[in-house]
Automatic annotation (TrEMBL), chains A, B:
<feature type="domain" description="HTH lacI-type">
    <location>
        <begin position="10"/>
        <end position="64"/>
    </location>
</feature>
<keyword id="KW-0238">DNA-binding</keyword>
<dbReference type="InterPro" id="IPR028082">
    <property type="entry name" value="Peripla_BP_I"/>
</dbReference>
<keyword id="KW-0804">Transcription</keyword>
<keyword id="KW-0805">Transcription regulation</keyword>
<dbReference type="InterPro" id="IPR001387">
    <property type="entry name" value="Cro/C1-type_HTH"/>
</dbReference>
<dbReference type="Pfam" id="PF13377">
    <property type="entry name" value="Peripla_BP_3"/>
</dbReference>
<dbReference type="GO" id="GO:0000976">
    <property type="term" value="F:transcription cis-regulatory region binding"/>
</dbReference>
<dbReference type="InterPro" id="IPR046335">
    <property type="entry name" value="LacI/GalR-like_sensor"/>
</dbReference>
<dbReference type="InterPro" id="IPR000843">
    <property type="entry name" value="HTH_LacI"/>
</dbReference>
<dbReference type="GO" id="GO:0003700">
    <property type="term" value="F:DNA-binding transcription factor activity"/>
</dbReference>
<feature type="domain" description="HTH cro/C1-type">
    <location>
        <begin position="11"/>
        <end position="54"/>
    </location>
</feature>
<dbReference type="InterPro" id="IPR010982">
    <property type="entry name" value="Lambda_DNA-bd_dom_sf"/>
</dbReference>
<dbReference type="Pfam" id="PF00356">
    <property type="entry name" value="LacI"/>
</dbReference>
<protein>
    <submittedName>
        <fullName>LacI family transcriptional regulator</fullName>
    </submittedName>
</protein>
Length: 340, 340
DNA sequence: TTGAAAGCGCTAACAA
DNA sequence: TTGTTAGCGCTTTCAA
């Protein structure tokens, strides 16, 4: 049952013996202390190499009360996180940034309350040094609880209600939507509609606001607004509504690529050519954007960089628990393809 | 610098004091030993609850030499893993299965040799109890090395060359391709082409073989084969080649949705209607499949279940290092949409 | 600059 | 059935 099987790894003790010094000295070398004589340093390094010594994390953790582990909690159920390269790119960015630290990345799906409890337990018990939370739902109490427990926490995506002191990383949804809409206007489009995302989610709200600001004070204004839920079907329905409301609509900014793809279908069904009759822009620059016909012009988010920033903030929080960290809002970019 | 800050968690010792028993007894209760008197059991349980005790994993690990952690290694660079819901669903399946065990899931990207070394080190050093490897490249030595080091390893996806004894989980690519092709045949299609994936990857090979078997002995046979690389552009090119080779082609099975999407574009450009003139089937049932126009009929893989099986095999390997585990090949399903 | 020694919190072997 | 005890491998004072 013990089933250890594997040969025992060399310990500090053995390295010390090999190098002819004490455990303390080896420990100092391993942890990069400066108060070690060049001679001892060299002897220890050689012994380490010779023995193939690697520190035992559990032992270290036991005494330092650090775990050198950060937890990525995906509070999903919102399928979006998992579709699209979003999740993967984010993880990649986080890993990238963490690879320069001793921190390991742990992953946990936690949508139910029970799973959230488990996260809190892990944190409280010192099994993780910090938490990255992504894909939060409306007023999820998890980040607040974690922060209250004194745990370093950072959020992927702006929380809908302000969580004083908990930093977040987000794409500049507002500016992205604004620039997409302005682009349409510059192309000479004058009846620019939008298909919004859910208005109880930050990206939904911000992207609508960006559209509004772009058209503020412009002739025609921002009146052609149809509600969607980020999903393709809702985009199709919304586009039909828009066409009914104003048959002369000549452009539409959709708050997601899926909705834009839906709009494309509705437009084709209505006999409108894209982009000739109606220009379409999506948001996310997802895989879908590249594979619709015509390919979607879309607002791209620097997802991988968002991951890196998340990790950077978290590391800062762990290292300097006191300091106030500002949210990071990263610029988006309009990727022009065929649809607008 | 110590920055512990957090209040110390209660220890076994304190629970023992509170319950009026010894540490040993508390340990037995915590670890579910049966040799504990009902009275002691109750007292300990109460003390645990009262104090909010949670075992310190580091301390436990130190003595048991188990880490209760499994590592998911994404040997990426092949972007596919990250696009599509693939990665997310897989992780979800793995998490799901592990949630019934004390095992935590760790994640690591490792494409470079240096990163592979780190994986081996983690394993050798007992920091992880087992490894799930996905997205392996051709003849990556990592699984062999890990297995040789005595570490439990399971593979996501059939390795291209047999790794004696290392179990894997895969979708039944061959059967999926075969049934898609047969479906086309049943629909009365008689000039059925295929666009293959790279022939140095198991899915590429298997899906071509499935196509071949479906048409073996049938009139026309399996002669309309064009090479692709799973990417959309290659699918578009391949479709043009096929049209040139046989303008009367009336169906095409593409080994990926992206290639199928490319084929769709080429067909539209050539003035062919889908599915009227040419039926198209893709593979993966990815997001793209749902958003092309017409929507793609596609072969779906039970990705989440693959994740669960992966975890199941790994747990079995960890618990019973000796036993031989067979590969698990899961059935695919043809999802019929508009394109065929 | 170094060594010695005291734990970190836990499991498991042994004795009672 | 229970208590006692010896470590697990490491970091970190404290003295030297």
């Amino acid at each position: 049952m013990t089933s250890t099987g594997r040969a025992r790894r060399p310990t500090l003790e053995q390295v010390a013996a090999e190098a002819g010094v004490s455990r303390g000295t080896v420990s100092r070398v391993v942890n990069g202390s400066l108060e070690v004589s060049p001679r001892a340093l060299k002897a220890v390094q050689e012994a380490i190499r010779k023995l193939g010594y690697v520190p035992n994390q559990a032992a270290r953790s036991l005494v330092t009360r650090r775990s050198d582990t950060v937890l990525l909690v995906v509070s999903e159920s919102e399928a979006r996180v998992f579709s699209e390269p979003f999740f993967g790119s984010l993880v990649r960015g986080i890993s990238q940034e963490l690879s320069a630290t001793p921190l390991q990345l742990n992953l946990m799906m936690a949508s139910t309350a029970r799973q959230h409890d488990r996260v809190e337990q892990l944190v409280r018990n010192g099994h993780v040094d910090g938490v990255v939370l992504i894909s939060l739902h409306g007023d999820d109490p998890l980040p607040r609880n974690l922060a209250a427990a004194g745990s370093p926490v950072v959020l992927g995506g702006r929380p809908i209600s302000d969580l004083g002191g908990v930093p977040y990383v987000d794409a500049d949804n507002l500016a992205g939507a604004k620039s997409a809409t302005e682009y349409l206007h510059r192309q000479g489009r004058r009846r620019i509609a939008t298909i919004t995302g859910p208005q109880d989610m930050a990206p939904g709200i911000d992207r609508l606001e960006g559209y509004r600001r772009a058209l503020r004070g412009r002739r025609g204004g921002a009146r052609l607004v149809a509600q969607g839920d980020f999903g393709q079907a809702s985009g199709e329905v919304a586009m039909r509504e828009l066409l009914a409301a104003d048959p002369a609509v000549d452009a539409v900014f959709a708050a997601s690529d899926l909705m834009a793809a839906g709009a494309l279908r509705a437009l084709r069904a209505a006999g409108r050519r894209v982009p000739d009759d109606v220009a379409v822009i999506g948001f996310d620059d997802s895989a879908v954007a590249q594979h619709t016909d015509p390919a979607l012009t879309s607002v791209s988010q620097p997802v991988q960089r968002m991951g890196r920033e998340l990790a950077r903030l978290l590391v800062a929080r762990i290292r300097e628990p006191g300091t106030v960290l500002d949210p990071v809002v990263l610029p988006t970019e309009l990727v022009v393809r065929e649809s607008a």
